[in-house]
Write a structure and sequence with these properties.
The chain has 147 residues and is of the alpha+beta class. It is built from 3 helices and 7 strands. It is elongated, with a radius of gyration of 25 Å. The relative contact order is 0.14.
């Protein structure tokens, strides 16, 4: 019997492959446990359509992330923090500060978890890496000014 694997099965194959298996193994294990479907023309056509939809969705997502990257890299974010008596920052510029300033000044909402930086503790210009996903990184320019 031919089955379409809908999950990876160790020692048999990867998701999306069509395999010839013994009928008992196919019906009683692979299909019963949800690892495969009987490979009919209808099932294969549905699988191909689903893969096409997922590919289009992924392409659209990558396109949106690239637009966000361009937007972020075109910005020079100015963050103002209090200065201590010795001229150094009172506290540090945190990921939360970056997120809040991006939203407030530019209307861009990002999750603080995708910002790859330690706390910025010095006045001046800094570059922060933002991991947008799918291997796309944006370099955000930040200028820290004392007030």
């Amino acid at each position: 019997m031919k089955v379409l694997l809908i999950k990876d099965v160790k020692s048999l194959g990867k998701k999306g492959e069509i395999k010839e298996v013994k009928e008992g193994y196919g019906r009683n294990y692979l299909i019963a446990k949800g690892f495969a479907k009987l490979a009919t023309k209808e099932v294969i056509r549905e699988w191909e359509e689903e893969q096409k939809r997922e590919k289009e969705k992924l392409e659209k997502e990558i396109e949106e992330l690239n637009r966000l990257k361009e937007k972020l890299e075109g910005i020079e974010l100015i963050v103002e923090k209090k200065l201590g008596k010795n001229g150094h920052l009172y506290g540090a510029v945190t990921k939360e500060d970056i997120v809040k300033n991006l939203k407030g000044k530019f209307g861009i909402e990002i999750d603080k978890k995708i910002i790859d930086t330690k706390h910025i503790k010095e006045v001046g210009k800094h570059i922060v890496d933002i991991k947008l996903g799918h291997g796309i990184h944006a370099k955000l320019k930040i200028e820290v000014k004392g007030i």
